[in-house]
Amino acid sequence: MTFPEHYSLTLPDLPERRWIIAAAVLIVVVLLVTVAYIVTRHTQNEVAATVEARINAGIRASEQVAREKFLVTNDELRFFSNIEELAALKRAEDAGGNDPETGDSAAKLRERYESLLVSFMLSKPRILQMRVILNNERADEWIRAERASDRVLVAPEEARQSKADRYYVKALRDMPPGEIYWTQIDLNVESGQIESPIRPVIRGSRVLGDAEGRVWGFLVINYDANVILSEITSAFPGRGRIYTFRADGYYIQHPDPAQAFAFQLSPDNALKHPDEFAYEPAPWVDAPSLLLATNLLTGEESIAVISSRERFSQYALSERGGFAIHIPKAEFDKQVSRIALPTILLFAFGDILLGIVLTWFYLRVIQQRAISQVFGLNSQWSAAQSDAALSLLMSRAPISIAMLDRNYRHLAVSQHWCSEFNIPAERLIGRDHRELFPQMRRPIQQLVDRAIDGSEQHGQYRYVDKEGETIEVNLRVAPWLAPDESVAGVVIIAY
Question: Same domain for 354 and 402?
Fold first, then answer.
């Protein structure tokens, strides 16, 4: 049956459509925001755990190197302070020229001891100076060997200095014989002036005593602190900003070179680590040692891990300070976004698609109800007009769709349905679906039987067409309602 092109069908106004579309949009947005939040938090936790593991691996490696160096240098301090030539030299000097026990002259004993220092320093490039300082009022250098480029020289008496004003000598005076003391890292000072070019050093010292337990001097070894600092730097190549600070908080490494050793070079502009950063625990359970750091001067946020001061002080015998590795929060968030964004976009696509499908389904339910009202309840329409309107509506549908009653008879079909199955509409209307499509009898009947009970069904079937090709068809079967709200039949969508 065909109809004139000017024939039109006007359904009742459906205000519910606007509410359904608005509700669908709201559900889609809420789901998308919720999933984006969950995915982002999960990704943050994973990235934080990875960052923490990498930084802690570098910290452990750096601490292990520092630990080994401190343990070795402690042994060196004990060895050179207990060596017999040094004790004999002190006895010879006190006796006025010769050792009362061995008879060796002070000059010979000094030469032997200084020769040992030179030989040892030549084999240990990390040692810059080895000195014996007397515990007298001036704290005079009694023996001094120092590195000059690739050579080691023994300073003559006129080149030796008084160290009474140096903080480490003042600290050593109050310690008992045999005590080991480590200074913090600072720049080497000679004759009251910072050495140029600057040279970071850390000094290991041991208090020297005689047989009666009196302190007579101090063995002081200057070590090149760049050896320790370079180990820290090399452990974190390109992984963040390094802030190395002393126990008093002053910086010896900083992204701004002007802050490194500023407490000596420019005291008025020197920053302390606690004055620059405030820390609070990070929220990621899989990264318990990560901290959220806020720069108190610029407001910049970063992710940080601080080295263990406790472990460090165990082998340095006192607190030396620590170091912190910072990753800018912006870089951390960028890494999180790079990982989380594909997942969020994928879900967004599925979320929007689901919203469209649900909206379409509920709009179809409303439309079915409106059609039922038009064709069953509106007395202004005749049966013939209702059939014509229904046929026109279905035939213009842009999908493969067929409307069946409870007895499987076709009431209306779309042109796409006819094209899909290569059967003209006039052969379908009023005919039993099972007769026309025997190959679909079982799957269709099962889906229709369930749909007539009131629930939407999904399924698929395969068949072989005339050319011998296997065709797979997905089916969606939904009930449509009569004016009394009972199931009057089903609508089948094939795709």
Answer: no
